[in-house]
Each structure stands twice: as structure tokens, then as C-alpha cells.
Records
---
Amino acid sequence: MSNGDQILRAHATISSLRTNLPTDYEVEEMWVKEFNGALRKIEAATSMDLGEFKVTEDLLYRSVASGNYLTGKVNYRDGLWCRRETLLHKIDSVLRYFTGLQSGQDRQIDFKRS
């Protein structure tokens, strides 16, 4: 596959994640792996460093399933989890970044005072 094809496939994956992400407060690690994998495809095809857009390990955590306030016992769900808004932030950031690159905004970004 060509580099252009890899980029298009990764963009399609990221856009689809944005549309199909569960609406729960937390999302399973598999969603994060899919997103980070798409970014790795773009990095390989372009030699760009997209590390700041990736969801890092420190943003994943064990999710509490239940707890007993009398005993202090906490039960966790299986696997690692990420806050949905954190993943959405990363998805939106990288999509806007590439939209800016396509339109040439990477060279001229204007911040206007209100």
C-alpha cells in the first residue's frame, strides 16, 4: 500500500472512531489502541511525530465497578479504561491539525483579540 493510502485509511479510522465512540463516561482501552494504531500508521507514512496526540499510558486506569463504604472494599472492571472526553479531545485535536495542514494553515494561524 502506498503512503497516501495508509494516511487515508488512518484518517477514515479516526473519523469513524469519532462518530462511533460509545457515549459512556469511560471507554475501554480497545478504543484507545485503535486510535493510537491509526496515528502510528500516519507516523510511518509521513515520518511525522504525532506523540502529543496519542493517548498515553498514564491516561489509562482501572475503572471502579462497585465499592463498599463500610468495609472499604473496591471492585474493579476488567481491563484498563480512559475517560471518553480525553479520547475525544485527542481525536478532535489531530483531525483539526490535519485539516489545518491541508488548507495551509500551519504557516499562518491568526489569534484575534475580542
---
Amino acid sequence: MAQKIVIVGGGTAGTTVANRLARTLAKEIEAGQVEVHLYGDQSVHLYQPGYLFVALNMGDLDDFIRPQKTLVHPRVHWHEQSIKELDLKHHRLITEHEQVPYDLLVIATGSVPNFHYVPGMAEVTENFYTPDGAVRLRDRLNRFTEGRILIVQDMPHKCPAAPLEITLMLDDYFRKRDLRKNVEIKYTYPIGRIHALQSVADWALPHFIEREIQYETYFNMERVDPERKVVITMDGAEHPFDLLISIPIHQGAEVIRRSGIGDELGFIPTDRTTLKMIDQEDVYVIGDATNLPISKAGSTAHYQAEVLVKNITDRIQGRPETTLYGGKVACFLESSLGEASFITFDYHHPPHPAQESEMLHWFKGMYNELYWLTARGLM
């Protein structure tokens, strides 16, 4: 009987792992010794970092969407189905229509923003973390000619650099429209600096000062008053806005919370180097679904996929699993509409932002085009 590898989640992490396994285990799959199954609940694949560019009118949403089935290798069994429960005790998934046994399970269910976590936020906020939100924010920005933009965020959330990026890009956006003098931009952060990574905060702060971007730290939201257009923080202060852009707290996928296998936010306890679920020898976790204290970003999933695929391949082929994930992450940092910086870091080496340049911005644009090769497991 074939060994059954089941991957849950059709985003970057799950699709990349499935496609890479289709190549590294090609011989075993063709011989009927291994099956790779990928489960996802959407017919389309969304390149989420593209939403930022949609919001700033630098790309169309269609540029960042592909039919999921066109990205999946022919050796992978693609199932467009919702998973109701992950039953780890009995090594099976439960869908609407069937119970699916597995030998090895890869959980790549991602994370989702919770706009209802802060009372009142969902009624009035704009965002660039959902496809509809990015389009709606683009339209709001096109009409926005004066007033106060307030950018707020809760932790954890995907792509920790994105709030800084949109702040710096909005400054350039309104300068190019000759409206910056009429628009007040205020960025907020919940701890005592403007980014969790000290070197990134140190990189961004001079830009804020030079461009007269307001900022406030230790900004922890209690609620939003949609009628009065104010954010009330836990210290009782009120912060008015004309346009609220929020990056809400993210949580693990509903199926994780429903299955009772995650922490209080629905993230899965994961070994930081082997990427196995704690106390589960046959379950691997990748990408945003883990509870690891590292960036929830596409590059994280990319580097984790390399480790996961190597270890699963070694396991199937009878070798010990010796490849360890070192915490590697890489990220472009857009500093304007035409320049970017770049960072890379891991568990043992902090990031050192590169000098921003047009070339790095161009590289980011190129990667937006090349991402589909990553999803196909070719990069």
C-alpha cells in the first residue's frame, strides 16, 4: 500500500511543499509507493504581498491571482475541499464528504486577520491584508485629498514589515500627487519602538523624521468608535482619524481552532528546527500556521519548505532526518514608490537593512512576477 502524504492548505507553503515533493519523490510516486495529496478550499491562488501594490494603484488584483490547479504538479492529487477537523489521534482528516487517512501530515493552513478582535474596528477600517480590502483602500486613497490617516496594528500579523512599508509609500504617494501638505500620516506600534526588530526600527525612524511622518509607540487599542472616528487606546487616550488603516491581530485557521490542536490564537506548537508539531512524530507544520516567534512571511515558508521536503524525502527513502531549519527569513522593505531595502536574518543573526535603491525596488517587482515559479516548486 502506498504511503500517503497529505498536505492541508493551498497557499504558498502547502503548494510549494506539494510541488517539491512531486519532484523529489517522483520515482516513488510513479512506482505507486507514495501518494501526495494537497487539500485547499479555494479554486484560486492569491499572492498576498501583491495586495500592498494594489492598494497603492501599482498593480491590478488580477496580476496576483492564478487558478490553483494550474500551479499544482500532475503528480500531486489536488482536492478543492474544506477540512472540518484534523483528527491526529486517528491519523485522519475529516471533510464534508469523507474521512481521509494519512501516514504523514503537513499542516500549512496559514493565518487569518481578525478585524473583530478590537471592538468597532471592522465597521470603519480599511486594510490591505485581504483582496477586497486592497481594492477598497485603493479607491479610498484615490479620493483622499486631505485629512488624517491613522495606521494601527496588533500583533502577531503577517509580513511584519508591511505596516512600515505602506506608511513610507503613502508619504511618497501623496507627495507625487502634490497633496502631502494636506495629509497627516500617523503610524503606531504596540511596543516601545516602531518595529519589533531593533535594526529595522533604526532604519525606518530617520525616514519618519525626515518626511515628517508622525508616530506613536506603546499604542495598544481598546476599541474604535466608528461614529466619532476615534481609536481609544488602553490608557484612555483618543486618537482621531479621517482614514483608518488597520493591520489586525492574526489567528490560526479556523480548522486548527476547531480541532483543538493550537494555542489560544490557533497557532500550532512547533519545534523550531525540525518543524514537527510538538509530540507528533508524523505531523509537520510550516509557514504562518506555526507558533514560532519569527516573521509570518512568504520567504519563511519558502525556506521552511526546503527543510521539510528534504526531511520527508529522506524519511520516505529510508534515511535519517537531519536537516534543520535555522530560522532564515528574507524580506524586501519598500521605502517609497520607487526604492526599497532588503533584509535577511535567522535565529542567530539579526537583520541589517541594505541601503535602499531603485535596483532593490526593481528586484521586488521582478519577484512579484517570478513568485509563481516559487509556488510551483521551481525556485
---
Amino acid sequence: MLLVERLSDARRNGHPVLAVVRGSAINQDGASNGLTAPNGPSQQRVIRQALANARLSASEVDVVEAHGTGTTLGDPIEAQALLATYGQEHTDDQPLWLGSVKSNFGHTQAAAGVAGIIKMVKAIEHGVLPRTLHVDEPSPHVDWTAGAVSLLTEQTEWPETGRPRRAAVSSFGISGTNAHTIIEQAPAERPTAADATAPAPGPLPWILSGKSETALSAQAERLLAHLDAHPGGPRPADVGYSLATTRAVHDQRAVLVGTDREDFTRALTALARGEAAAQLVQGNGTAGKTAFVFPGQGSQWAGMAVGLMDASPVFAARIHECAAALAEFTDWSLVEVLRGAEGAPSLDRVDVVQPVLFAVMVSLAELWRSLGVVPAAVVGHSQGEIAAACVAGVLSLKDAARVVALRSQAIGRVLAGKGGMVSVALPVAVVRERIAPWGEERISVAAVNGPSSVVVSGEPEALDELIAACEADEVRARRVPVDYASHSAQVELLREELLELLAPVEPRAAEVPFLSTVTGSGSRARSWMPSTGSPTSVAPSSWRARSGGCWTRASGVHRVQCAPGADGGCAGDCRGRGP
């Protein structure tokens, strides 16, 4: 028997996680060349659908456990379907490995697919690909030169590569049903209850709740009394673990953050008295859904995300997957840039900072998901839309890496040094009046971040004149630290080059609603142009998310705040220490 449950539920319930179902798909080929005869195009479609569902490219799957009936009709058709899909994105030195458990004990009918899953789970666990028995050489009925696929005629080591081991399992029913499931190595185990009693490496949260403010204050008083009665213990990690895992959750909530008993005593005292404290956050529980908001450039700083790479295996694994995806399009190492390694390029370069921010945001989203925080919608602002599209499933990780890397390289090569951007603390209508004398060819609105937060872009000299005029009127205006004019007419210089560079991008149907801050939809090559005449606007997308019952959660690397009410959203802080 196989037990399948959400990863977050399995972790919360203390169940061992043997592998993770990354994606799956089913279809039916009965209307093709006969109910009982296999159909190659249908098998190719189910493979591509499963890859799309898993948000993976074919090159990111290491081995396929074939249905493998051993017939002269079925095996060549299945092999050709694998060659036409997986075989096209693998290489001769890193082929797709192919085997079938039916060579061990035959066809188990309705249990055949389960047998394949069990075989691949154990292969992932032991890091070894078993030999397929009774096969000495490839079938002559298959054109093996059509793609990079190799039969497992010998036991093969399956080493760690910096990303999870992944396997796909095919199972085809006698009535024409095709099923394809992709499983992957489980993330490293998070600390157990016993581990939680060890000294904390940093700040810890204590979570309290009550049915009313009075009940919440009373709970704080009881916890204070308990601490006073037991001066030698319990340790803060023990209390935090118990509060988070063994208590009912009510509408009135408070989170206390501290590193030692003194911190928590101060916060508990403030909560009991109804006072504010730096270590205390209070609020009401809501039944709203969660939306992830991905900000644009400007939130980076040296050393960002290093703490999370060291503390979170889930975050670190996704960072390494992003590094592998970006490596095809860049000549620098993502991990070396984040860690500030000697010789690594600076975050001052647009062709470095944008891919790095993309990787951090995608990895933060993966961390949130591993903790059970799953988005009901995603919103991206400016270049943050690339990360949002990846998390929504609109772009595979490889396609998203292509977009963010090649797009930022084109910006740096063609636009760098020719423009700039300025943030102005005025409503957009007022800003448009102020910049009118320069004309849209010299200054234009680039982004509307809130009711009184607008970014303009344009020529450096014109922006200098605008800043001087704003300062004379005591209007806050500051330069954004970039040397190009994004979301301006200058971007037209990139159009033809980017359309050619991004032509291989293959958009997919979104698994999570994807709210654009430019067009409201779209994901083809022209959709990833840095916007020309269309400024980005966070407020409408945030409002669409909230009107759908969502509260927004920032997946950027700094705190991002929008104004309250219909024109704004809310956000959080992810400064590399944890979500």
C-alpha cells in the first residue's frame, strides 16, 4: 500500500517521506488506432502534460520506468514516444535511463503501475538504478538514434547532482488509458521535536491565540506564571514547539519573537497588559486565501539569502536548481554571487542582479509551499513577473531562467548608461502633469506602486531637472539605483533582439491564477519584453487578488508595503532569515 498526502501534512504528522509526487497526467487514446492498440502521439502528449504539471523540463528527469509490456507492438511505440520527448532534451553523456520492473516478475495487471512507483522510490532512496533483466541489447525495431535514451542493461549509480533525483513512471491500461507520474527525491528532513529542544541558532516564534482579546491576555498571564514557577526551564525552543504544534488556533492571535527567556518575558508582560512591544505582533485570523507578490529590482543587498541557504534545505535545494537552470545562459555562479565569493560579479550589474533576485524569489516561494503556505494567486511587479510566472507554472524553470538571463543581458548591453528612473511621492495624475513639459520621449510613467508612489523613467538629464523641480516644491523625489530607463520608449531598441532570443520559450497553462501588472494575461515571447508604453501597476492586481478572497504575501527579499484599502495589499519580510 502507498500512502499519499500533502508534504506539509506528512511533515506535521511525523510521517517519513520516501519521495514526492512532483506531477502527473492521464489521457485516453481509445479513439485513435483502436481501443487496445498503443498510440505513440497520445503517449507523447501525456508525458508533456505530466512535465507541465510538474513544472519541469524533460532534461530534469533522470530515468523513466516504462510500462514495458515486452511485445513487438507496444515496446517500440513506447520507446519512440520517450525518444521524441525526453530523448530530445538529454545528451549522449547524460542520457535518459530506461528500464521496466516487468522484466523481474512479469505483468501484475492493475498493480503494474504501483510496482513501478515502488521500484523508483527505492532507487531514489539508495541512489542506484537497477538493471533491467533479460535485455542484452536494444531492440532493432526502435530508432535509438532519434534521441538520447539508454537502456539499463547494467546496474548504474545514481549520484547526487545538486538537485533532487527524479524518475517518471508510465502505466498504460488495456482500454487505452495512459498515465505518467513524475516523482522526486524528498527534501531533507526538517528538525524533529527532539531537535527542537537544542539551543536555538537565532530568533524563535512563540504563537498564542484566544477566542477574545481578554482570553489572549489571560493566556499570556498563565504562561508568565509558568515561567516564573520554573526558572530553570523549559527552554524557549521547547515552549515554541509546543505552542505551535499542540494548541488549538483561535481568531485573536499573537506572535512573540525572541532569543532567550528575557525576550519572551518582556513580550508576554506587554501582551498581558495590552501594551505594545518590539517583540510582539498581534492580529486577527482571517479566512482569506493567500497570494504571492513578487517585487521588481531594487530590494537586493550583499549577503541576502545566505542565512536561508544555510538554515533551510528546501530553500537551498531550490537555489541549486535555479543555479543549474541559469548556468546555461550565464557565465557566473548563482551560489558564488549570493555568498560573495572572490571573483564573483557584483550585484550592481543588471545582468546579475535580476537573475539573482529571480532565483531568491522562486526559492522563497518553494519554502513557503513546503511549510503549507500555498498561493491561490500570484502577482509580479516589473521583472518580478518572471518569478511569478514560474511559480504559477506558466513558465518552466528553464524557460524562466532563459527569459530573466537573456532579457537582463540585453538591457545591460543596449540600454545601460542611457537612462534612469526616479521615484516620486505623488499621485499618478499629478506626476503626469509634472512630467508633461519634457514629453513622453524624455520622461514617462514607468510604475504605479500605490496611491502616492510613482516611478518615472527617461533620459538622465531630464530626470535631473525633474528632481530639482520637485525639491524646489518640497516634493520627495529620489533616484532608483539603475542606469537604464525600464518601462520607457527606450526599450523599443530591444524588441527585435528579444523576440528572437526568447522565441524558444513555450508558455503553459497556469496552475495558479497569474495576475499581470501590465496586461492582465499573456506569456509569449513579446510578453517578456521590458514594458514600453505600458507602465506597471501593483494596485489593480493586488485589488483583483483581494477581491478574489486573497491576502497578499510578499515573496521578495525585503519588506514590501502597499497602501491599505482598495488600492493596496499587505506584505511580509524575508531578509534571508526565514519566511
---
Amino acid sequence: MSNKAKINQVILLIVDDVKSSQFFHLLERGTLPNLKQLADTGTSCKYCITSFPSVTFPCYPNIVTGAYSGYYPEEGSGIPAYHWVARTDPPTIKKRLPFIRNYSVGTHIAKIGSDLADNVKTIFEQAGDGNFLSSLNIVYRGSYIVPPYEFNTESVFKNIEKAYNSPEEFFDNKEIPTITVGYVPKTDSLLHEKGFDHPEYIQELIKVDRCVGSLMNVLKKRGYYDSTAICLISDHGNYKAKNVYDLEPFFEKKGLVPYNPKKKEGDFDASFGSVGHFNFPGETWHHHPSINQMRHFSPTATTKELDLFQMLWEIPGVKLMYYRDDKNSSKKGKIHIQRKDEKTGKICTAYIEYKGMGSTLETKYTYEDDDIFGYENSERAQQLLDDKFHSIDDWLSGTYDIDFPLLIDQIPRYFKNPRSSDILVSTLGKYCMNYEHGETKNEHLYSHDLAIKESMTVPLIIGGSEDIPHLQIDFCKTTDIVPTLLKLLGHSPHKSVVGKDLFR
């Protein structure tokens, strides 16, 4: 399992909510000098593609595991999205209705380790024996977690520095950590509240750079720099929506009551930024509904039958819709996709077929009249429109620099998960709804969740030790990070890992 490794430690820094184009603009302008030093002497990538939906969950845990959402009883992560309803396949019928998971709630975040399920492993769990440290890293399974004494960027880095200056404060054997993961969330809150173009957001990125510089100095002073790989990545990018919209009155007029499992009532559950996740009951709330059941739905507050598909098209700005086929299994199936022409109202139909699981998953994209995602306009992507199945790396190489990168691979991984929604819709950024579980929460225009390249493309830097190759990688995916860092340490990744070693 282990080979002789020149690099003895890795530090993975996940900075929330940073799009690649802005990051590298700041880097090349000299605004982030310490990170530029790491990039110039190590490896960097401007087109590192994250998971879909491009939200902290699932994007962040997928970085730390090297795997994606899937049919988690057999393969993949149990976390399909930031919000989900705890349904199983086959359904588990209980008196208590399925709960709603919402990672905005602190007690729910504490459940992430168990939510991942057992068929994926964190980077710590894949690395054998050793000291493993998490500094505010909430995907910490298999490591010693150090909560920050203050909830800010400096505190995250100070804890990492302390582990190198005084490891005895964390570990009985008084040795420094082999793997450290630090998570910086402040950039995300500033993005939503202020925007990516606001001075406070940019200053926070500058603060991250200063903290990286301080950490580099500590490593050099302690004699660890030459044997340490420092990796910086973000979980997702971002965008600015054109409008906000209050959805509460819309659902009230339709007679739909929000799902409340404690009260054992409700017709639907939804979370909706610019991408909307909609859950409906089938035979019961334990069951996913069939397509026919969604076409003939009876809401609680009215006797009028609803076609849920038609209803969702009536939401202002909805342009895309995805839903699973009734005959799908974990190893084979089809996803239905529709796109609405805003001017004519015409609805075009396409399909994603899938076969296999995990790293062997292959997908095929076909359409009836028009190419829904515009792949025909790209010479590389066009080659994948051949009515054949393709791997995740085929889709990556064909779509990494255009809108909807990697999406044909990602959609089936989402819908395979029994915890995923019944219908996904997207406004493509025309509207941001800020709607969660029956309430419109705010009026934020700055967000992330879409499959557009600005939200799906994140920066990647790996530097530090002179043993890091000096490369500018054309493209990669965020799940490539775990196998790459493990290989630097001389370890092989777990079988669940979908990513590949970038240096092989």
C-alpha cells in the first residue's frame, strides 16, 4: 500500500465560495503574492470543475472524500445536496415520517459524518495510521478536530500553525499531523451578504493570502516546508442573479402546504436558490412519487388536481427541469430533461442515460429537437454527442471551459441518491428565490448552485515542497485532489474514489 515518499505532510485548505476566474485575476495582478509563489513554483489549474449542484454540500465533502453522491447503500456519498428529505430505496416504512436535513442548522452539521454513510472514506480514513488534524473542517471523520477559538479566517490558520509549533497540544505522540484540512467559511458569508465584487469579500481573500504566508513562514522556521505539500482549493464558484422573487404566495395560491414531518402534514418540500429542489409524497412520504402521480397530484388545501410539472413551469424564470424515470435502478436508468424557450414557450426534451456506478459510471446524452446545453457550439463537446456512453473524464475534457461542465455525469449521480429530490428546476440565474422549507429567507442576489461555468469552476494550487511538479494543468475535477495528495504521501486511494492522481 505504501511507497517511499519524499513528501511527509500535506495541508489541504478549502476556502469557501471562490470562483476561479476572479481568483486567478487577483493572483496575476499580484494581489495574492503568497499564493502566487505557491502557484509559480508548484502546480496550478484554472479549470478545476466541482460537483453539481454547486453548493457547499455536496461540493465540500466530495473534495474531502474524492467521491460523489450515489446510491449510498452500495456506493457513493449519502449527501446529495444542502437540503434533503431522508427517504430510502426501497422505502423504509415507519410511523415517524422522513426528516428534513438542513445543513444551515448546527445540529444537522454535526451529523455529516454519519450522513456520508460507510461506502466513502475521508482523506484521513484513507491514509492509514498517523496524526490527522481538522481546523474547522466539518467533514472531519477520522481526524482530531480543533474548533476555532474565534469564528474567523485567522483562527483557522492559527490552529494549523499551533499543530506545527506545539503538536503535543493535540497529539499524545507529540508529532506533527501527516494530513491537515482547514476550512475557511467567511468568504461564503461575505459573498452572499456583500457580493464577489465588494471590497470586504476581496479583502477576505487577501487575508487568506496573508495567513498562507504566515503558515509558510512557520513551516520554514520549523524545518517542515521542504517536506510539505500545501493545497488550496474552493468548493464552488458563484454568480449574481438578475432578480429575486418571493415564492411563498405562489405555493399558497396553488393550495400546497409545506411538508412538516413533526406535524405529519404537508404536500411538498422545497429549497430554491436559482436551482430548485422539489420533494413530493408518493404513496406516502416514505415513497418517491411516480411520474404519473406527479402529473395527477392532489394538494391538501384544494380539491383541484395539479400537474406538478406544469405548475413548476409557471414559476417565474424557470428554464430547465430534470426528473428521474420510474424504471431507474442503481446501475442503469434515465433522467428526463426539459428546457423552455423564454420567448416562444416551446419546451425541448433531452435525456441522460446511465450505466455503472462510482468510478465506472458512464453516461449518454441525447435530445429530440434541440441541444439543451449548447454543446453543439463547442468542437470538443460536440464529439460527445455521438449516441454513445462516455466516462466522467470524457465529459470533463469535452466541457471543462464552457457552461454546464461535467453536468451529464453529475445529474445521474444526484438522482441515484434516494435522498435527492423528485424534480430539479433552474432559472439559470434569472431569479434567485432564497426559499427554504416554506419560507423566503432573504433577498440575496449573489449565490451559487448553478451548472454555469462561473459557479462550477474553482481554483486549484498545490505548492510548497520542491518535489511538487511545476505544472499548469489544463483541467481537472475536485475529486482528483484526494488521490493526488494521498499519492504524494505514498498511499493508494480507497476504491470509492472517482478522482485520479494528477501527477501520474
